[in-house]
Amino acid sequence: METILRSQTNEVRIDPLGPVVMIGEKINPTGHKKLAEALKEDNYEYVKGLAEMQIEHGAHVLDVNVGVPGLDEVALLPGIVKRLAADFDVPLCLDSGNPKALAAGLQEAPGKALVNSVNGEKDRLESVLPLVKDRQAAVIGLTMDEQGIPTDPERRLAIAEHIVNRAVQLGIPQQDVIIDTLVLTVGADQSAAKVTLRTIELVRERLGVNINLGASNVSFGLPDRQTINQAFMALAIGAGANCMITDPRKLAPTILACDLLLGRDPYGKRYIVSTRKRLA
Amino acid sequence: METILRSQTNEVRIDPLGPVVMIGEKINPTGHKKLAEALKEDNYEYVKGLAEMQIEHGAHVLDVNVGVPGLDEVALLPGIVKRLAADFDVPLCLDSGNPKALAAGLQEAPGKALVNSVNGEKDRLESVLPLVKDRQAAVIGLTMDEQGIPTDPERRLAIAEHIVNRAVQLGIPQQDVIIDTLVLTVGADQSAAKVTLRTIELVRERLGVNINLGASNVSFGLPDRQTINQAFMALAIGAGANCMITDPRKLAPTILACDLLLGRDPYGKRYIVSTRKRLA
To answer: Best residue in B228, B254, B279 to probe A by mutation, most A CBs within 10 Å?
Structure first.
Protein backbone atom coordinates (compact mmCIF):
# COMPACT_ATOMS: atom_id res chain seq x y z
CA MET A 1 0.00 0.00 0.00
CA GLU A 2 1.53 3.25 -1.11
CA THR A 3 1.23 6.63 0.59
CA ILE A 4 2.08 9.54 -1.68
CA LEU A 5 3.05 12.89 -0.16
CA ARG A 6 3.57 15.98 -2.30
CA SER A 7 5.29 19.34 -2.05
CA GLN A 8 5.00 22.12 -4.63
CA THR A 9 6.46 20.05 -7.46
CA ASN A 10 7.90 16.91 -5.84
CA GLU A 11 6.41 13.72 -4.54
CA VAL A 12 7.58 11.20 -1.96
CA ARG A 13 6.29 7.64 -2.14
CA ILE A 14 6.10 5.60 1.03
CA ASP A 15 5.84 1.96 0.07
CA PRO A 16 6.70 -1.27 1.94
CA LEU A 17 8.78 -2.46 -0.99
CA GLY A 18 10.61 0.82 -1.49
CA PRO A 19 13.32 2.53 0.55
CA VAL A 20 12.60 3.82 4.04
CA VAL A 21 11.30 7.40 4.06
CA MET A 22 12.96 9.72 6.58
CA ILE A 23 10.97 12.48 8.23
CA GLY A 24 13.37 15.01 9.76
CA GLU A 25 12.34 15.53 13.40
CA LYS A 26 14.47 18.52 14.34
CA ILE A 27 11.92 21.31 13.83
CA ASN A 28 10.39 20.61 17.22
CA PRO A 29 11.02 22.90 20.21
CA THR A 30 10.38 20.17 22.81
CA GLY A 31 13.69 19.92 24.65
CA HIS A 32 15.27 22.21 22.08
CA LYS A 33 15.71 25.54 23.82
CA LYS A 34 17.40 27.37 20.96
CA LEU A 35 14.52 26.59 18.62
CA ALA A 36 11.97 27.64 21.26
CA GLU A 37 13.74 30.99 21.51
CA ALA A 38 13.99 31.36 17.75
CA LEU A 39 10.25 30.80 17.47
CA LYS A 40 9.57 33.35 20.19
CA GLU A 41 11.72 35.92 18.40
CA ASP A 42 10.23 35.09 14.99
CA ASN A 43 13.74 34.07 13.90
CA TYR A 44 12.79 32.09 10.82
CA GLU A 45 16.40 31.83 9.69
CA TYR A 46 17.10 29.40 12.51
CA VAL A 47 14.18 27.21 11.47
CA LYS A 48 15.36 27.39 7.89
CA GLY A 49 18.82 26.25 8.93
CA LEU A 50 17.37 23.17 10.60
CA ALA A 51 15.40 22.37 7.46
CA GLU A 52 18.47 22.75 5.27
CA MET A 53 20.66 20.63 7.49
CA GLN A 54 18.12 17.81 7.57
CA ILE A 55 17.55 17.77 3.83
CA GLU A 56 21.30 17.84 3.33
CA HIS A 57 21.53 14.70 5.48
CA GLY A 58 18.80 12.86 3.63
CA ALA A 59 15.41 13.87 5.07
CA HIS A 60 12.62 13.33 2.51
CA VAL A 61 9.92 15.06 4.57
CA LEU A 62 10.16 17.70 7.30
CA ASP A 63 8.21 17.49 10.54
CA VAL A 64 7.08 20.96 11.67
CA ASN A 65 6.17 21.42 15.30
CA VAL A 66 6.04 24.93 16.78
CA GLY A 67 4.47 24.14 20.15
CA VAL A 68 6.07 26.45 22.69
CA PRO A 69 4.20 27.24 25.94
CA GLY A 70 3.01 30.83 25.70
CA LEU A 71 3.07 31.02 21.91
CA ASP A 72 -0.07 30.87 19.79
CA GLU A 73 0.36 27.86 17.51
CA VAL A 74 -2.72 28.77 15.49
CA ALA A 75 -1.06 32.04 14.49
CA LEU A 76 2.47 30.64 14.26
CA LEU A 77 2.17 27.34 12.37
CA PRO A 78 0.71 28.62 9.06
CA GLY A 79 3.40 31.28 8.73
CA ILE A 80 6.24 28.83 9.29
CA VAL A 81 4.62 26.28 6.95
CA LYS A 82 4.22 28.92 4.26
CA ARG A 83 7.83 30.02 4.49
CA LEU A 84 9.23 26.48 4.57
CA ALA A 85 7.06 25.52 1.60
CA ALA A 86 8.39 28.51 -0.32
CA ASP A 87 12.01 27.65 0.48
CA PHE A 88 12.06 23.85 0.27
CA ASP A 89 10.41 21.57 -2.22
CA VAL A 90 9.81 18.68 0.19
CA PRO A 91 6.50 17.55 1.70
CA LEU A 92 5.77 18.77 5.21
CA CYS A 93 4.51 16.84 8.21
CA LEU A 94 2.38 19.16 10.35
CA ASP A 95 2.83 18.22 13.97
CA SER A 96 0.53 19.70 16.58
CA GLY A 97 -1.76 18.72 19.40
CA ASN A 98 -4.02 21.62 18.47
CA PRO A 99 -6.58 20.85 15.72
CA LYS A 100 -7.03 24.56 14.97
CA ALA A 101 -3.32 24.95 14.39
CA LEU A 102 -3.39 21.92 12.09
CA ALA A 103 -6.34 23.39 10.16
CA ALA A 104 -4.57 26.72 9.76
CA GLY A 105 -1.26 25.07 8.85
CA LEU A 106 -2.86 22.79 6.26
CA GLN A 107 -4.22 25.87 4.46
CA GLU A 108 -0.66 26.91 3.72
CA ALA A 109 0.81 23.52 2.86
CA PRO A 110 1.03 22.95 -0.89
CA GLY A 111 0.63 19.50 -2.42
CA LYS A 112 -0.26 16.73 -0.03
CA ALA A 113 0.94 17.10 3.53
CA LEU A 114 1.14 14.61 6.36
CA VAL A 115 -0.65 15.29 9.66
CA ASN A 116 1.07 14.21 12.87
CA SER A 117 -1.07 12.82 14.44
CA VAL A 118 -4.26 11.14 15.53
CA ASN A 119 -4.52 8.28 18.00
CA GLY A 120 -7.36 6.04 19.14
CA GLU A 121 -8.95 8.76 21.32
CA LYS A 122 -12.44 9.63 20.15
CA ASP A 123 -11.98 13.41 20.52
CA ARG A 124 -8.79 13.41 18.55
CA LEU A 125 -10.21 11.26 15.75
CA GLU A 126 -13.29 13.47 15.50
CA SER A 127 -11.42 16.73 15.50
CA VAL A 128 -8.49 15.83 13.23
CA LEU A 129 -9.69 13.29 10.66
CA PRO A 130 -12.16 15.71 9.01
CA LEU A 131 -9.29 18.15 8.41
CA VAL A 132 -7.22 15.39 6.83
CA LYS A 133 -10.17 14.48 4.62
CA ASP A 134 -10.90 18.10 3.64
CA ARG A 135 -7.34 18.87 2.66
CA GLN A 136 -6.74 15.42 1.13
CA ALA A 137 -3.77 15.02 3.40
CA ALA A 138 -2.31 11.83 4.87
CA VAL A 139 -2.20 11.15 8.60
CA ILE A 140 -0.11 9.36 11.19
CA GLY A 141 -2.10 7.26 13.67
CA LEU A 142 -0.47 6.47 17.01
CA THR A 143 -1.36 3.16 18.66
CA MET A 144 -2.55 4.64 21.94
CA ASP A 145 -5.92 5.79 23.25
CA GLU A 146 -7.75 7.04 26.35
CA GLN A 147 -6.28 4.12 28.32
CA GLY A 148 -2.72 4.98 27.36
CA ILE A 149 -0.23 2.88 25.40
CA PRO A 150 -1.06 -0.84 25.60
CA THR A 151 1.75 -3.22 26.54
CA ASP A 152 0.13 -5.93 24.44
CA PRO A 153 0.86 -5.94 20.67
CA GLU A 154 -2.63 -7.24 19.85
CA ARG A 155 -4.15 -4.29 21.70
CA ARG A 156 -1.94 -1.87 19.80
CA LEU A 157 -3.04 -3.54 16.58
CA ALA A 158 -6.69 -3.16 17.61
CA ILE A 159 -6.18 0.59 18.06
CA ALA A 160 -4.45 0.79 14.66
CA GLU A 161 -7.40 -1.03 13.12
CA HIS A 162 -9.85 1.34 14.78
CA ILE A 163 -7.99 4.40 13.47
CA VAL A 164 -7.88 2.97 9.94
CA ASN A 165 -11.58 2.10 10.07
CA ARG A 166 -12.60 5.57 11.26
CA ALA A 167 -10.51 7.18 8.54
CA VAL A 168 -11.97 4.97 5.82
CA GLN A 169 -15.52 5.64 7.08
CA LEU A 170 -14.83 9.34 6.65
CA GLY A 171 -13.61 8.81 3.09
CA ILE A 172 -9.87 8.92 3.68
CA PRO A 173 -8.21 6.22 1.58
CA GLN A 174 -6.66 3.50 3.74
CA GLN A 175 -3.24 4.05 2.17
CA ASP A 176 -3.26 7.61 3.52
CA VAL A 177 -3.10 6.36 7.10
CA ILE A 178 0.39 5.61 8.38
CA ILE A 179 0.46 3.74 11.67
CA ASP A 180 3.04 4.66 14.30
CA THR A 181 3.50 1.65 16.59
CA LEU A 182 5.25 3.74 19.27
CA VAL A 183 8.15 2.61 21.39
CA LEU A 184 8.79 3.20 25.08
CA THR A 185 12.16 3.15 26.76
CA VAL A 186 13.74 -0.24 27.18
CA GLY A 187 15.56 1.03 30.26
CA ALA A 188 12.24 1.22 32.11
CA ASP A 189 10.65 -1.91 30.66
CA GLN A 190 12.77 -4.62 29.12
CA SER A 191 9.94 -5.81 26.88
CA ALA A 192 9.30 -2.31 25.44
CA ALA A 193 11.14 -2.83 22.16
CA LYS A 194 9.89 -6.39 21.70
CA VAL A 195 6.28 -5.23 21.99
CA THR A 196 6.89 -2.60 19.33
CA LEU A 197 8.63 -5.01 16.98
CA ARG A 198 5.79 -7.50 17.32
CA THR A 199 3.23 -4.73 16.72
CA ILE A 200 5.05 -3.76 13.53
CA GLU A 201 4.81 -7.35 12.28
CA LEU A 202 1.11 -7.54 13.12
CA VAL A 203 0.24 -4.21 11.47
CA ARG A 204 2.27 -5.12 8.37
CA GLU A 205 0.57 -8.51 8.14
CA ARG A 206 -3.01 -7.63 9.01
CA LEU A 207 -3.47 -4.03 7.83
CA GLY A 208 -0.81 -3.65 5.15
CA VAL A 209 -0.49 0.10 5.74
CA ASN A 210 2.82 1.92 6.02
CA ILE A 211 4.47 2.02 9.43
CA ASN A 212 6.21 4.95 11.04
CA LEU A 213 8.41 5.04 14.10
CA GLY A 214 10.35 7.56 16.11
CA ALA A 215 13.27 5.59 17.39
CA SER A 216 15.19 7.64 19.90
CA ASN A 217 12.92 7.16 22.92
CA VAL A 218 13.91 3.55 23.16
CA SER A 219 17.37 4.27 24.56
CA PHE A 220 16.43 6.98 27.06
CA GLY A 221 18.59 6.87 30.21
CA LEU A 222 21.02 4.26 28.86
CA PRO A 223 24.70 4.70 27.94
CA ASP A 224 25.79 4.91 24.27
CA ARG A 225 22.30 5.66 23.04
CA GLN A 226 23.44 5.86 19.44
CA THR A 227 24.35 2.15 19.30
CA ILE A 228 20.96 1.19 20.76
CA ASN A 229 19.10 3.52 18.40
CA GLN A 230 20.96 2.14 15.38
CA ALA A 231 20.28 -1.45 16.40
CA PHE A 232 16.63 -0.71 17.12
CA MET A 233 16.16 1.01 13.79
CA ALA A 234 17.57 -2.00 11.93
CA LEU A 235 15.39 -4.40 13.94
CA ALA A 236 12.32 -2.22 13.27
CA ILE A 237 13.03 -1.95 9.55
CA GLY A 238 13.60 -5.70 9.42
CA ALA A 239 10.21 -6.19 11.10
CA GLY A 240 8.50 -3.96 8.54
CA ALA A 241 8.69 -0.29 9.57
CA ASN A 242 9.31 1.85 6.51
CA CYS A 243 9.04 5.46 7.63
CA MET A 244 11.15 7.03 10.38
CA ILE A 245 10.78 10.30 12.23
CA THR A 246 14.37 10.81 13.13
CA ASP A 247 17.45 13.01 13.15
CA PRO A 248 18.90 12.11 9.74
CA ARG A 249 22.32 13.38 10.78
CA LYS A 250 22.49 10.58 13.31
CA LEU A 251 20.53 7.77 11.75
CA ALA A 252 20.48 8.16 7.98
CA PRO A 253 23.60 5.98 7.54
CA THR A 254 21.98 3.03 9.31
CA ILE A 255 18.70 3.51 7.44
CA LEU A 256 20.49 3.62 4.09
CA ALA A 257 22.51 0.53 5.04
CA CYS A 258 19.26 -1.32 5.82
CA ASP A 259 17.80 -0.36 2.44
CA LEU A 260 20.96 -1.62 0.78
CA LEU A 261 20.86 -4.91 2.70
CA LEU A 262 17.17 -5.42 2.02
CA GLY A 263 17.66 -5.03 -1.73
CA ARG A 264 15.92 -1.66 -1.99
CA ASP A 265 18.91 0.28 -3.25
CA PRO A 266 19.84 -0.86 -6.78
CA TYR A 267 23.62 -1.19 -7.12
CA GLY A 268 23.96 0.40 -3.69
CA LYS A 269 23.91 3.76 -5.40
CA ARG A 270 22.09 5.73 -2.69
CA TYR A 271 24.24 4.23 0.04
CA ILE A 272 27.50 4.82 -1.79
CA VAL A 273 26.72 8.38 -2.92
CA SER A 274 25.50 9.48 0.49
CA THR A 275 28.36 7.80 2.36
CA ARG A 276 31.00 9.34 0.10
CA LYS A 277 29.41 12.75 0.60
CA ARG A 278 29.27 12.26 4.36
CA LEU A 279 32.87 11.12 4.63
CA ALA A 280 34.24 13.68 2.17
CA MET B 1 17.17 -26.19 20.90
CA GLU B 2 20.22 -25.63 23.03
CA THR B 3 23.85 -26.24 22.10
CA ILE B 4 26.14 -26.49 25.10
CA LEU B 5 29.87 -25.93 24.66
CA ARG B 6 32.35 -26.50 27.47
CA SER B 7 35.86 -25.50 28.42
CA GLN B 8 37.81 -26.91 31.39
CA THR B 9 35.29 -25.70 33.96
CA ASN B 10 32.92 -23.35 32.12
CA GLU B 11 30.01 -23.83 29.82
CA VAL B 12 28.43 -21.65 27.15
CA ARG B 13 24.82 -22.20 26.21
CA ILE B 14 23.65 -21.28 22.72
CA ASP B 15 19.90 -21.00 22.76
CA PRO B 16 17.42 -19.13 20.52
CA LEU B 17 15.81 -17.56 23.57
CA GLY B 18 19.08 -16.56 25.23
CA PRO B 19 21.62 -13.87 24.39
CA VAL B 20 23.67 -14.07 21.20
CA VAL B 21 26.90 -16.01 21.63
CA MET B 22 30.01 -14.36 20.21
CA ILE B 23 32.80 -16.44 18.73
CA GLY B 24 35.95 -14.34 18.48
CA GLU B 25 37.26 -14.64 14.91
CA LYS B 26 40.67 -13.00 15.23
CA ILE B 27 42.83 -16.11 15.66
CA ASN B 28 42.85 -16.72 11.93
CA PRO B 29 45.89 -15.93 9.79
CA THR B 30 43.90 -15.42 6.57
CA GLY B 31 44.60 -11.81 5.64
CA HIS B 32 46.35 -11.30 8.99
CA LYS B 33 50.07 -11.20 8.20
CA LYS B 34 51.28 -10.60 11.75
CA LEU B 35 49.50 -13.69 13.02
CA ALA B 36 50.82 -15.75 10.12
CA GLU B 37 54.35 -14.70 11.07
CA ALA B 38 53.74 -15.34 14.75
CA LEU B 39 52.59 -18.87 13.92
CA LYS B 40 55.66 -19.46 11.75
CA GLU B 41 57.94 -18.33 14.56
CA ASP B 42 56.04 -20.30 17.19
CA ASN B 43 55.29 -16.99 18.91
CA TYR B 44 52.45 -18.15 21.11
CA GLU B 45 52.43 -14.89 23.06
CA TYR B 46 50.95 -13.10 20.06
CA VAL B 47 48.17 -15.66 19.78
CA LYS B 48 47.56 -15.36 23.51
CA GLY B 49 47.25 -11.58 23.17
CA LEU B 50 44.53 -11.99 20.53
CA ALA B 51 42.66 -14.40 22.80
CA GLU B 52 42.90 -12.03 25.75
CA MET B 53 41.75 -9.02 23.76
CA GLN B 54 38.72 -10.84 22.40
CA ILE B 55 37.63 -12.20 25.76
CA GLU B 56 38.09 -8.73 27.23
CA HIS B 57 35.68 -7.42 24.57
CA GLY B 58 33.07 -10.06 25.19
CA ALA B 59 33.93 -13.18 23.18
CA HIS B 60 32.34 -16.28 24.73
CA VAL B 61 34.14 -18.77 22.48
CA LEU B 62 37.43 -18.49 20.55
CA ASP B 63 37.80 -19.60 16.95
CA VAL B 64 41.22 -21.12 16.36
CA ASN B 65 42.51 -21.31 12.81
CA VAL B 66 46.22 -21.83 12.16
CA GLY B 67 46.12 -22.45 8.42
CA VAL B 68 49.22 -20.83 6.95
CA PRO B 69 50.58 -22.07 3.61
CA GLY B 70 53.78 -24.01 4.28
CA LEU B 71 52.97 -24.80 7.93
CA ASP B 72 51.81 -28.23 9.05
CA GLU B 73 48.41 -27.69 10.64
CA VAL B 74 48.31 -31.26 11.94
CA ALA B 75 51.38 -30.56 14.03
CA LEU B 76 50.50 -26.96 14.88
CA LEU B 77 46.82 -26.98 15.83
CA PRO B 78 46.96 -29.35 18.83
CA GLY B 79 49.80 -27.39 20.44
CA ILE B 80 48.00 -24.05 20.10
CA VAL B 81 44.74 -25.58 21.32
CA LYS B 82 46.49 -27.10 24.33
CA ARG B 83 48.12 -23.82 25.32
CA LEU B 84 44.96 -21.75 24.81
CA ALA B 85 42.94 -24.26 26.83
CA ALA B 86 45.48 -24.02 29.64
CA ASP B 87 45.40 -20.21 29.65
CA PHE B 88 41.72 -19.44 29.00
CA ASP B 89 38.66 -21.10 30.41
CA VAL B 90 36.44 -20.56 27.34
CA PRO B 91 35.29 -23.16 24.83
CA LEU B 92 37.27 -23.35 21.60
CA CYS B 93 36.05 -23.51 18.04
CA LEU B 94 38.52 -25.54 15.97
CA ASP B 95 38.64 -24.13 12.48
CA SER B 96 40.40 -26.08 9.76
CA GLY B 97 39.88 -27.44 6.28
CA ASN B 98 42.08 -30.39 7.21
CA PRO B 99 40.25 -33.26 8.97
CA LYS B 100 43.52 -34.63 10.36
CA ALA B 101 44.28 -31.29 11.96
CA LEU B 102 40.78 -31.23 13.44
CA ALA B 103 41.26 -34.76 14.80
CA ALA B 104 44.58 -33.84 16.38
CA GLY B 105 43.25 -30.54 17.73
CA LEU B 106 40.17 -32.16 19.26
CA GLN B 107 42.44 -34.49 21.26
CA GLU B 108 43.74 -31.46 23.12
CA ALA B 109 40.49 -29.54 23.55
CA PRO B 110 39.00 -30.04 27.00
CA GLY B 111 35.24 -30.05 27.60
CA LYS B 112 33.11 -29.84 24.50
CA ALA B 113 34.56 -27.97 21.54
CA LEU B 114 32.95 -26.67 18.39
CA VAL B 115 34.20 -27.80 14.97
CA ASN B 116 34.28 -25.25 12.17
CA SER B 117 33.05 -26.67 9.82
CA VAL B 118 31.27 -29.15 7.60
CA ASN B 119 29.15 -28.27 4.60
CA GLY B 120 26.91 -30.29 2.31
CA GLU B 121 29.83 -31.85 0.43
CA LYS B 122 29.88 -35.63 0.80
CA ASP B 123 33.64 -35.88 1.39
CA ARG B 124 33.58 -33.27 4.09
CA LEU B 125 30.60 -34.79 5.88
CA GLU B 126 32.20 -38.23 5.80
CA SER B 127 35.60 -37.09 6.99
CA VAL B 128 34.56 -34.62 9.71
CA LEU B 129 31.27 -35.80 11.25
CA PRO B 130 32.80 -39.02 12.67
CA LEU B 131 35.39 -36.90 14.52
CA VAL B 132 32.63 -34.72 15.94
CA LYS B 133 30.77 -37.83 17.05
CA ASP B 134 33.86 -39.49 18.59
CA ARG B 135 34.84 -36.43 20.60
CA GLN B 136 31.24 -35.51 21.43
CA ALA B 137 31.86 -32.08 19.99
CA ALA B 138 29.42 -29.72 18.28
CA VAL B 139 29.76 -28.68 14.66
CA ILE B 140 29.02 -25.76 12.37
CA GLY B 141 27.37 -26.70 9.07
CA LEU B 142 27.73 -24.25 6.19
CA THR B 143 24.88 -24.07 3.68
CA MET B 144 26.98 -24.81 0.60
CA ASP B 145 27.93 -27.96 -1.25
CA GLU B 146 29.68 -29.29 -4.37
CA GLN B 147 27.60 -26.88 -6.47
CA GLY B 148 28.69 -23.84 -4.46
CA ILE B 149 26.51 -21.48 -2.41
CA PRO B 150 22.90 -21.48 -3.65
CA THR B 151 21.27 -18.12 -4.32
CA ASP B 152 17.90 -19.59 -3.34
CA PRO B 153 17.01 -19.69 0.39
CA GLU B 154 15.06 -22.96 -0.03
CA ARG B 155 18.14 -24.59 -1.53
CA ARG B 156 20.28 -23.38 1.36
CA LEU B 157 17.68 -24.79 3.74
CA ALA B 158 17.82 -28.13 1.89
CA ILE B 159 21.58 -28.30 2.43
CA ALA B 160 21.14 -27.44 6.11
CA GLU B 161 18.58 -30.22 6.39
CA HIS B 162 20.92 -32.67 4.71
CA ILE B 163 23.76 -31.79 7.11
CA VAL B 164 21.49 -32.16 10.14
CA ASN B 165 20.17 -35.50 8.84
CA ARG B 166 23.65 -36.92 8.22
CA ALA B 167 24.76 -35.81 11.68
CA VAL B 168 21.73 -37.38 13.37
CA GLN B 169 22.20 -40.62 11.41
CA LEU B 170 25.73 -40.82 12.81
CA GLY B 171 24.47 -40.33 16.36
CA ILE B 172 25.25 -36.63 16.79
CA PRO B 173 22.36 -34.95 18.63
CA GLN B 174 20.55 -32.44 16.39
CA GLN B 175 21.16 -29.64 18.86
CA ASP B 176 24.90 -30.08 18.39
CA VAL B 177 24.66 -28.91 14.80
CA ILE B 178 24.78 -25.13 14.32
CA ILE B 179 23.86 -23.97 10.85
CA ASP B 180 25.78 -21.10 9.24
CA THR B 181 23.57 -19.58 6.57
CA LEU B 182 26.51 -17.74 4.94
CA VAL B 183 26.39 -14.28 3.47
CA LEU B 184 28.00 -12.99 0.29
CA THR B 185 28.88 -9.41 -0.42
CA VAL B 186 25.98 -7.12 -1.14
CA GLY B 187 28.25 -4.96 -3.28
CA ALA B 188 28.45 -7.77 -5.85
CA ASP B 189 24.85 -8.97 -5.57
CA GLN B 190 22.14 -6.75 -4.19
CA SER B 191 20.04 -9.69 -3.07
CA ALA B 192 22.91 -11.31 -1.12
CA ALA B 193 21.82 -10.17 2.34
CA LYS B 194 18.12 -10.77 1.66
CA VAL B 195 18.79 -14.37 0.69
CA THR B 196 20.70 -14.89 3.93
CA LEU B 197 18.02 -13.26 6.07
CA ARG B 198 15.34 -15.41 4.47
CA THR B 199 17.48 -18.54 4.97
CA ILE B 200 17.83 -17.68 8.66
CA GLU B 201 14.04 -17.46 9.00
CA LEU B 202 13.56 -20.78 7.20
CA VAL B 203 16.18 -22.63 9.25
CA ARG B 204 14.80 -21.20 12.48
CA GLU B 205 11.25 -22.18 11.53
CA ARG B 206 11.81 -25.59 9.97
CA LEU B 207 14.87 -27.01 11.75
CA GLY B 208 14.93 -25.13 15.05
CA VAL B 209 18.71 -25.44 15.37
CA ASN B 210 20.98 -22.59 16.37
CA ILE B 211 22.20 -20.29 13.63
CA ASN B 212 25.67 -18.87 13.21
CA LEU B 213 26.85 -16.12 10.93
CA GLY B 214 30.06 -14.34 10.08
CA ALA B 215 28.93 -10.87 9.21
CA SER B 216 31.81 -8.89 7.80
CA ASN B 217 31.80 -10.33 4.24
CA VAL B 218 28.56 -8.59 3.53
CA SER B 219 30.10 -5.12 3.26
CA PHE B 220 33.20 -6.03 1.25
CA GLY B 221 34.22 -3.26 -1.16
CA LEU B 222 31.73 -0.70 0.17
CA PRO B 223 32.42 2.52 2.09
CA ASP B 224 31.81 2.73 5.86
CA ARG B 225 31.73 -1.04 6.27
CA GLN B 226 31.14 -0.77 10.01
CA THR B 227 27.69 0.81 9.56
CA ILE B 228 26.67 -1.91 7.09
CA ASN B 229 28.01 -4.67 9.34
CA GLN B 230 26.18 -3.27 12.35
CA ALA B 231 22.91 -2.97 10.44
CA PHE B 232 23.29 -6.45 8.97
CA MET B 233 24.01 -7.95 12.35
CA ALA B 234 20.85 -6.43 13.81
CA LEU B 235 18.76 -7.59 10.83
CA ALA B 236 20.24 -11.10 11.13
CA ILE B 237 19.64 -11.28 14.88
CA GLY B 238 16.10 -10.03 14.34
CA ALA B 239 15.58 -12.79 11.76
CA GLY B 240 16.82 -15.44 14.21
CA ALA B 241 20.62 -15.76 14.07
CA ASN B 242 21.96 -16.27 17.59
CA CYS B 243 25.65 -17.01 17.26
CA MET B 244 28.17 -14.72 15.56
CA ILE B 245 31.73 -15.33 14.45
CA THR B 246 32.97 -11.80 14.67
CA ASP B 247 35.51 -9.31 15.92
CA PRO B 248 33.96 -8.48 19.31
CA ARG B 249 35.95 -5.23 19.50
CA LYS B 250 33.94 -3.96 16.55
CA LEU B 251 30.56 -5.59 16.88
CA ALA B 252 29.95 -6.55 20.52
CA PRO B 253 28.18 -3.22 21.27
CA THR B 254 25.60 -3.79 18.52
CA ILE B 255 25.10 -7.43 19.54
CA LEU B 256 24.59 -6.48 23.18
CA ALA B 257 22.16 -3.72 22.14
CA CYS B 258 20.14 -6.27 20.16
CA ASP B 259 19.98 -8.61 23.16
CA LEU B 260 18.79 -5.70 25.27
CA LEU B 261 16.13 -4.71 22.72
CA LEU B 262 14.95 -8.30 22.29
CA GLY B 263 14.41 -8.72 26.02
CA ARG B 264 17.32 -11.11 26.56
CA ASP B 265 19.26 -8.92 28.96
CA PRO B 266 17.37 -8.57 32.25
CA TYR B 267 17.52 -4.97 33.49
CA GLY B 268 19.99 -4.22 30.68
CA LYS B 269 22.74 -5.33 33.02
CA ARG B 270 25.06 -6.86 30.43
CA TYR B 271 24.64 -3.90 28.11
CA ILE B 272 25.20 -1.30 30.81
CA VAL B 273 28.18 -3.01 32.44
CA SER B 274 29.95 -3.66 29.15
CA THR B 275 29.24 -0.18 27.78
CA ARG B 276 30.51 1.54 30.92
CA LYS B 277 33.66 -0.56 30.79
CA ARG B 278 34.15 0.23 27.09
CA LEU B 279 33.63 3.97 27.54
CA ALA B 280 35.64 4.21 30.78
So the answer is: B228
